[in-house]
Amino acid sequence: MIFSTADLCDQHEARIRTGEVQIVAPIFHSYGGRQSFYGPIATLSVFEDNSLVRAALETAGNGRVLVVDGGGSLRCALVGDQLAQLGARNGWAGILVNGCIRDSLVMAKMEFGVLALATHPLKSIKLGAGEINVPVIFGETSFTPGAFLYADADGIVVAPQPF
């Protein structure tokens, strides 16, 4: 599917005004080689621990987008090049991280969508803590497992069903 988030907003402006379709606050930066991606959402809620991120990306993505609420922490990275490669290899469309990533120069060459707040060179701890497939809220947006995320250079749009 070829899409533009600006066009989606134009086409669904009434649904945006009612809050049914949401636009994520423009606080995320693109680090992956795939600048435009979309898919159904799978969610994680973690804090400075990427064990569940690895576990999720080890499964078949089937075109989904992994939305990781890392609590907005800027103290370590939740995703590096190895996890991004794992996600790309297993059929994930991309990942949105409310936190940091690392190995950004390597990720920029991968056919994988990566959006995050910033980069940080320190890796996370690995204790296995967090929650899987729970609604998460950040960037002025609610992310519900099974909803759809559309991302491109202009922004990120979340809808309850595919467009």
Structure notes:
- The protein is an alpha/beta fold and 163 residues long.
- 20% of the residues lie in helices and 33% in strands.
- It has five helices and twelve strands.
- It has helices at 5-11, 13-17, 51-57, 81-89, 104-107; strands at residues 22-23, 29-30, 37-45, 65-69, 77-79, 94-101, 113-119, 131-132, 136-138, 141-143, 148-152, 155-159.
- α3 links the parallel β3 and β4.
- The protein starts with a helix and ends with a strand.
- 43% of the residues are buried.
- The model has no long low-confidence stretch (mean pLDDT 98).
In short:
This protein is of the alpha/beta class and 163 residues long. It has five helices and twelve strands.
Radius of gyration: 14 Å
The biggest beta sheet reads: 10 strands, mixed
Total beta strands: 12
Structural class category: alpha/beta
Number of helices: 5
| Proportion of strand residues | 25-35%
Distance between the termini: 10 Å
Mean pLDDT over all positions: 98
Following the backbone from N to C, one meets helices and strands in this order, namely HHEEEHEEHEHEEEEEE
Low-pLDDT windows of residues = none
Please bin the fraction of helical residues. 10-25%
Apparent shape: globular
